[in-house]
Amino acid sequence: MHVLAFRHVPFEHLGRIGPALEAAGLSWEYVDLFDDPWRPLPQADALIFMGGPMSANDDLPFLRRELELIQDALAKGRPVLGVCLGAQLLAKALGARVYRNPVKEIGWYPVFWTEAAQRDPLLHDLRSPETVFHWHGETFDLPEAAEWLAWSEACRHQAFRATPGVYGFQFHLEVTPEMIAGWLEEDANAGDLREIQHPVDPAYNAARLQELAARVFGRWARGVAEGAFATG
């Protein structure tokens, strides 16, 4: 089975999601539609949409194409995973509003799980709260009929499940310390960094985040591989 991973900038890549896919026996490849928005795509059994510094509301050809691809995947019952900007695109494709969060949430902050998360196939046995990594300035309304799974003190909608295998995560479980250190050096992120109140330690909770990534993404990947999310 094959997975397409859509990047919006090269430095926001799969991180720890890649090993989880491979451990489940899934092949994968990156798709960078910002280079060629309308190029033909290979067949895929699941789609992943990563983060990026742009807004889901930006009128960009590659984002318009991605919204169409998400809607097509949802109509066909294919698993979709959205991370940060990817979660916002998924919410928008489902008809929800995406807008500026009251504050930019950048760094290590706790997320709290809802009652629905305690029954969720990916999240049911996690601690509450879990300290995870965040980097976002926008948020979204909960899509209609979606299950609300997580919240933080600064952002109410941190995670949701729309249908089996279709998840949006506002926070970043996928990052390694090296990825975070690289993001701190990126010119595209300089504006965000001028607004943070505390310096970011890339390694602060990295060991636990690695455990969480292996558990959560491993479960999603195995669900894709085993056809556990089939809806039709």
How would you characterize this protein structure?
The protein is α/β, with parallel strands linked by helices and 232 residues long. The protein has a single domain (2-226), classed as Class I glutamine amidotransferase (GATase) domain (Rossmann fold, 3-Layer(aba) Sandwich). Helices cover 28% and strands 25% of the residues. The protein is built from six helices and nine strands. α1 packs across α6 and α2 (61-75) packs across α3 (85-93). It is globular and about 45 Å long. The two termini are 17 Å apart.
Concise overview:
By secondary structure, the protein is of the alpha/beta class. It contains six helices and nine strands; from the N terminus they run E-H-E-E-H-E-H-E-E-E-E-E-H-H-H.
Give keywords.
nine-stranded mixed β-sheet, Rossmann fold, single chain, alpha/beta, 232 residues, globular
Compile the SSE list and pairings.
Layout: E1 2-6, H1 17-23, E2 27-31, E3 46-49, H2 61-75, E4 80-83, H3 85-93, E5 98-113, E6 130-140, E7 147-151, E8 159-163, E9 166-169, H4 177-185, H5 190-193, H6 206-226
Parallel strand pairs: 1-2, 1-3, 3-4, 4-9
Antiparallel strand pairs: 5-6, 5-7, 7-8, 8-9
Helix pairs in contact: 1-6, 2-3
